[in-house]
Amino acid sequence: MNITEAMEARHAVRDFTDQPIDAAVLDKLRAAVAEANAQGGLDIRLVHDDTDAFGGCPTHYGRFKNVRWCFALIGHDADTGPADLDKRAGYFGERLALTAVSLGLDTGWAVLHEVAEHDDFWHLADGERMPAVIALGHGARPGRPHRSRPVEELGAVEGAGTLADAPAWFVSALEAAQLAPSALGKQPFRFTLLADGLTVRAEALEGVQSDIGLGIAKLHMELGAAAAGHTIVW
Question: What residues does the Putative nitroreductase TM1586 domain cover (predicted)?
């Protein structure tokens, strides 16, 4: 499957088997990490630890079992504040998650506490943070579809009361955003097509890890619009 098809197939998994990840798949994941770091100005690590890839760090929400692999989403805060790093971690982290799903793996987002270092796998330098991690591997059982907000709540057209006259590409993008994972399934983001009919305003709403969620949703919006033959202008 391709990365767009992976949006439909991806469902959060928190319990993993001992089945190893194929060496050829790992090579593709490492290449995807290198690309994400170069494009996003990040320092993402692909972590392997047969005991616990989270390094014993407690999760903010949800219990995970037998996590041997994860993407540690690490980066420096920008001068504009922590929201920028959270959005980049969300955007490029989800791209990695969808890449993993397209390669036959399962994934699950998590936020960790007490993440200063984990043996030789990561060490946070001055000014670095780890907004989130993504567990990956072979799920012990299939994930289930998450709750999604209606497209009418996720998006709007400037100056219009409904989406009735919205272009097809914008509706397609919002439908892709419905598939975006978010903390507690709240999807705290909103997208508005501006009066020029081209530019989309993206907003994080009040909610847990809302800026991470917005970064994830922006990727989904771009993929949904691209499937309809359109490139979003932010």
Answer: 2-225
What are 165-216's pLDDT values in tens digits?
899 999 999 999 999 999 988 999 999 999 999 999 999 999 999 999 999 9
Same domain, 108 and 193: no
- pLDDT tens readout for residues 83-96: 999 999 999 999 99
Q: Name the amino acid, one letter, at 194.
A: L
> Which residues in the chain belong to E strands, given as ranges?
45-48, 69-76, 106-110, 117-118, 122-123, 128-137, 155-157, 189-193, 200-204
Phi (first) and psi of residue 152, to 5 degrees = -65, -25
**60 and 84 inside one domain:** yes
3-state secondary structure of 148: coil
**With a threshold of 0.90, does the pTM exceed it?**
yes
Sheet holding 155-157: strands in order across?
155-157, 189-193, 200-204
Pairing relation of β-strands 117-118 and 122-123? antiparallel
> Does residue 145 form part of some domain?
no
The whole domain housing 70 covers 3-137
Torsion sign (Cα): 102, 144, 66, 52: positive
Whether 146 maps to a domain, the answer reads no
